[in-house]
């Protein structure tokens, strides 16, 4: 192989690696609290499917079910929340919403979660969430959380 071809192949490999890293990083979320212990702990990284990944709908938030662990924009907390759906209900207007709760919390979250608030769902195999333990502590430290 000529040097020019080798350089192009190398450049293409680096670009592909960078693209894979960007896609992979967008499908990971760091756990910032202990509210879901013992399922996962602060600093764990969970693998997620997003409701909107650069215009691609990997997850339809309307299809979330009881038992799913979701990441949502809470009206009562400044950061996205990772909690389990404990009930699926409808309001007086007939609109679906979710009741969520951290597995380690004594009571449900203070406000309902509508599908429009759902950012992602944690991917599970059987009933076990896909995660990488403790690696996210670096991110928490850098963000000062």
TrEMBL record:
<keyword id="KW-0812">Transmembrane</keyword>
<dbReference type="GO" id="GO:0016020">
    <property type="term" value="C:membrane"/>
</dbReference>
<keyword id="KW-0472">Membrane</keyword>
<dbReference type="GO" id="GO:0004252">
    <property type="term" value="F:serine-type endopeptidase activity"/>
</dbReference>
<keyword id="KW-1133">Transmembrane helix</keyword>
<dbReference type="InterPro" id="IPR036286">
    <property type="entry name" value="LexA/Signal_pep-like_sf"/>
</dbReference>
<dbReference type="Pfam" id="PF10502">
    <property type="entry name" value="Peptidase_S26"/>
</dbReference>
<dbReference type="InterPro" id="IPR001733">
    <property type="entry name" value="Peptidase_S26B"/>
</dbReference>
<feature type="domain" description="Peptidase S26">
    <location>
        <begin position="6"/>
        <end position="91"/>
    </location>
</feature>
<feature type="transmembrane region" description="Helical">
    <location>
        <begin position="12"/>
        <end position="32"/>
    </location>
</feature>
<dbReference type="InterPro" id="IPR019533">
    <property type="entry name" value="Peptidase_S26"/>
</dbReference>
<protein>
    <submittedName>
        <fullName>Predicted signal peptidase</fullName>
    </submittedName>
</protein>
<dbReference type="GO" id="GO:0006465">
    <property type="term" value="P:signal peptide processing"/>
</dbReference>
């Amino acid at each position: 192989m000529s040097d020019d071809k080798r350089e192009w192949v190398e450049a293409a490999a680096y670009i592909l690696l960078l693209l894979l890293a960007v896609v992979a990083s967008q499908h990971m979320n760091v756990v910032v609290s202990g509210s879901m212990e013992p399922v996962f702990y602060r600093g764990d990284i969970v693998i997620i499917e997003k409701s909107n990944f650069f215009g691609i709908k990997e997850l339809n938030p309307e299809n979330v079910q009881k038992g799913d662990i979701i990441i949502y924009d809470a009206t009562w907390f400044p950061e996205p929340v990772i909690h389990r759906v404990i009930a699926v209900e409808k309001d007086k207007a007939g609109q679906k919403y979710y009741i969520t709760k951290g597995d380690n919390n004594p009571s449900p979250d203070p406000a309902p979660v509508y599908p429009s608030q759902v950012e992602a769902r944690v991917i599970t195999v059987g009933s076990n969430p896909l995660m990488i333990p403790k690696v996210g502590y670096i991110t928490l430290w850098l963000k000062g959380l």
